[in-house]
Amino acid sequence: MEYFFNFDKFAYLKGKRPEGCILCLIRENSPDVTNMVVYRNSHIGISLNLYPYNPGHLLIFPLRHTEDIRQLGTEERLALDAGLDKALSVLDGLYTPAAYNIGYNMGPVAGASINHLHMHVIPRYPREIGIAELLAGKRVLVEDLAVTRERMTAAFTALSDE
User: Fold this and answer.
1) What is the pTM of this model?
2) Angle between helices 74-95 and 145-160 (to 10 degrees)
3) Which residues are catalytic?
4) Torsions phi, psi for 157 (to 5 deg)
5) CA–CA separation, 62 vs 72, rounded Å?
6) pLDDT tens-digit readout, 54-96
7) Distance between CA atoms of residues 67 and 115, nearest Å
8) What is the CA radius of gyration of the chain?
9) What residue numbers bound the domain in which 121 lies?
10) 47 burial class (0-12, 13-18, 19+ CB within 10 angstroms)?
């Protein structure tokens, strides 16, 4: 069996990261982290994943630091749910995926590499593995993250005005 290996993600997991919680630093607009936020309100932020599985891979997170979904207040839960609805509408409009993987990884053993609760929204497409990926043994992203951020920010802004 062959494995996909993302060296940037590996370096991140092995400790090459800024001090403190990544999502809290993003919340505070710290220059120490790459900020890929495409939407924010008083309870949540929605950001592109810096190591996306597919174009449009989003993280939806409460602005208040918590590691456990059971610690969320009612308003935060409602805001996360409403954020998911917005995210799906934006992704449907920009990328028309065939399906989604949506979920939380709570704790390192579950796959969480960020100790701040966040929901993954991963668009899925038919025939995701292309010939370039098979030959190169790597995943090909079809859109630069900066372009994705610009397109999504505009789409979230337009959706928020409705």
Assistant:
1) 0.79
2) 120
3) 118
4) -60, -45
5) 8
6) 889 999 999 999 999 999 999 999 999 999 999 999 999 999 9
7) 6
8) 16
9) 7-160
10) buried
